[in-house]
Write a structure and sequence with these properties.
about 80 residues, two-stranded antiparallel ribbon, alpha+beta
């Protein structure tokens, strides 16, 4: 089991032996399948969350997001 710490050690991954907790934490899809169909739209490049979010540059050339609070509210309410 991998736990998050502020230190990275060879216990996590040792490039000399190609061993470590990371290697032991990778599983074949068949042994741990997701409960989602591959056609789930939110897996399609994450477009579900960005749909309707308008980004543009203002008069000074700065990137601006149009009403992100309303976009967030819409997603929270389904």
């Amino acid at each position: 089991r991998i736990t998050t710490t502020s230190d990275w050690t060879k216990d996590h991954y040792d490039p000399d032996t190609d061993t470590g907790l990371i290697i032991d934490s990778v599983f074949d899809y068949a042994s741990t399948p997701l409960g989602l169909r591959p056609s789930t739209t939110s897996l399609n490049y994450g477009t579900t969350i960005w749909e309707g979010l308008k980004c543009y540059r203002d008069a000074n050339g700065n990137p601006t997001v149009f009403r992100p609070d309303k976009n967030h509210e819409r997603f929270c309410n389904g």
